[in-house]
Specification:
rod-shaped; 2 strands; 88 residues; mainly alpha
């Protein structure tokens, strides 16, 4: 029959076991972090492409509403490309 003291010793965790677990977790994180950075870069590229597509679509809608002319911004004022007079 096991005594109360031997049951208590079986539940204790030694310092070596804790350090081993911390070391394993550190190794797994060092393997995982570069792949997470790659996923972040891919997500940023996807967001940028989506934003560019939205801008392109907005200009297309503007041109459809403005007889095929696109907007131009010069010195903070908005013109339509067909309205511009080029000064040499």
């Amino acid at each position: 029959m096991a005594t109360h003291a031997s049951v208590r010793q079986a539940r204790e965790v030694t310092l070596v076991e804790v350090l081993l677990c911390v070391g394993i977790v550190a190794i797994l994180l060092s393997i995982l972090l570069p792949s997470v950075a790659g996923v972040r870069d891919a997500a940023r590229r996807t967001v940028s492409c989506s934003n560019l597509r939205q801008i392109y679509s907005t200009f297309g809608i503007y041109a459809n509403d403005s007889d095929g002319r696109y907007p131009a911004v010069i010195e903070g004022r908005m013109f339509q490309v067909g309205d511009l007079v080029w000064i040499g």
